[in-house]
Amino acid sequence: TWKWVVGPMFLYLCERLVRFWRSQQKVVITKVVIHPFKTIELQMMKKGFKMEVGQYIFVKCPAVSKLEWHPFTLTSAPEEDYFSIHVRIVGDWTEGLFNACGCDKQEFQEAWKMPKIAVDGPFGTASEDVFSYETVMLVGAGIGVTPFASVLKSVWYKYCHDATNLKLKKIYFYWLCRDTHAFEWFADLLQSLETQMQERNNAEFLSYNIYLTGWDESQATHFAVHHEEEKDVITGLKQKTLYGRPNWENEFKTIAGNHPGSRIGVFLCGPEGLADTLNKQSISNSEADPRGVHFIFNKENF
């Protein structure tokens, strides 16, 4: 038995040593941005840090807890000279981080007053393969939208610098959330991308749909009254917010009809129930003919 145990244990110890060494490297918080509804953005720098789109890191703040490590998805693009995470204040640890960064104070905070941060990572996810397809469906549910902030930013940088060599030609983006207020920072990102694409006369590159799954009668009435306005009253985007849940069968059939003979990547960050639905739709809407349309499903659950 010991012959079978020694090898894996040695590899495990090596991996733990590498992670310990990596977590001891100096991290500098360069900027803290306070977003609405108690969400903060931490922009950081670390020597030798290299990331890909959609990856995540583990973060420890000794000023809050000397032992706790928490995973956060990277919301910056690899092309940026920093890496960032968005943290929503929902518990004791995040509240402690909020206060440690001086976000509870009105005056400007000097950089040297920022708390020490330890970072372990980055670690890979399925979202890294998004640039392997000409057409992709990105589906984010609630906080699962964060990996796609990194993806959409990176797509924009690549598109601006070398659009002709970018394999990705079309993005269908779906955002399902109970309440957009908690993620207004992401709506701002979409609004920026929407404006920039229109300025370059390529508004069709990104098609997006925002679905509010939790809404009441007063919201529906408000939506009906302002439906004819140019911009959506909830997000400020040209694309109107939809209510309820998508009809996935119709969505898959429409996309398959628009891109015959293509390999279409389907990327989800969301709950297991939605993953089962999208996986079944990917299989049922893929053709048996190798030259036909095929949906390739990739998921990241939480």
From TrEMBL:
<keyword id="KW-0472">Membrane</keyword>
<dbReference type="InterPro" id="IPR017927">
    <property type="entry name" value="FAD-bd_FR_type"/>
</dbReference>
<keyword id="KW-0285">Flavoprotein</keyword>
<dbReference type="InterPro" id="IPR013112">
    <property type="entry name" value="FAD-bd_8"/>
</dbReference>
<keyword id="KW-0274">FAD</keyword>
<dbReference type="Pfam" id="PF08022">
    <property type="entry name" value="FAD_binding_8"/>
</dbReference>
<dbReference type="InterPro" id="IPR000778">
    <property type="entry name" value="Cyt_b245_heavy_chain"/>
</dbReference>
<keyword id="KW-0325">Glycoprotein</keyword>
<keyword id="KW-0813">Transport</keyword>
<keyword id="KW-0407">Ion channel</keyword>
<dbReference type="GO" id="GO:0034702">
    <property type="term" value="C:monoatomic ion channel complex"/>
</dbReference>
<dbReference type="GO" id="GO:0046872">
    <property type="term" value="F:metal ion binding"/>
</dbReference>
<dbReference type="Pfam" id="PF08030">
    <property type="entry name" value="NAD_binding_6"/>
</dbReference>
<keyword id="KW-0832">Ubl conjugation</keyword>
<keyword id="KW-0521">NADP</keyword>
<keyword id="KW-1003">Cell membrane</keyword>
<keyword id="KW-0349">Heme</keyword>
<dbReference type="GO" id="GO:0042554">
    <property type="term" value="P:superoxide anion generation"/>
</dbReference>
<dbReference type="GO" id="GO:0006952">
    <property type="term" value="P:defense response"/>
</dbReference>
<dbReference type="InterPro" id="IPR017938">
    <property type="entry name" value="Riboflavin_synthase-like_b-brl"/>
</dbReference>
<dbReference type="InterPro" id="IPR050369">
    <property type="entry name" value="RBOH/FRE"/>
</dbReference>
<keyword id="KW-0479">Metal-binding</keyword>
<dbReference type="InterPro" id="IPR013121">
    <property type="entry name" value="Fe_red_NAD-bd_6"/>
</dbReference>
<keyword id="KW-0408">Iron</keyword>
<dbReference type="InterPro" id="IPR039261">
    <property type="entry name" value="FNR_nucleotide-bd"/>
</dbReference>
<keyword id="KW-0597">Phosphoprotein</keyword>
<dbReference type="GO" id="GO:0016175">
    <property type="term" value="F:superoxide-generating NAD(P)H oxidase activity"/>
</dbReference>
<protein>
    <recommendedName>
        <fullName>NADPH oxidase 2</fullName>
    </recommendedName>
</protein>
<keyword id="KW-0560">Oxidoreductase</keyword>
<keyword id="KW-0851">Voltage-gated channel</keyword>
<keyword id="KW-1133">Transmembrane helix</keyword>
<feature type="domain" description="FAD-binding FR-type">
    <location>
        <begin position="19"/>
        <end position="129"/>
    </location>
</feature>
<comment type="function">
    <text>Catalytic subunit of the phagocyte NADPH oxidase complex that mediates the transfer of electrons from cytosolic NADPH to O2 to produce the superoxide anion (O2(-)). In the activated complex, electrons are first transferred from NADPH to flavin adenine dinucleotide (FAD) and subsequently transferred via two heme molecules to molecular oxygen, producing superoxide through an outer-sphere reaction.</text>
</comment>
<dbReference type="GO" id="GO:0043020">
    <property type="term" value="C:NADPH oxidase complex"/>
</dbReference>
<keyword id="KW-0249">Electron transport</keyword>
<dbReference type="GO" id="GO:0034220">
    <property type="term" value="P:monoatomic ion transmembrane transport"/>
</dbReference>
<keyword id="KW-1017">Isopeptide bond</keyword>
<keyword id="KW-0406">Ion transport</keyword>
<keyword id="KW-0812">Transmembrane</keyword>
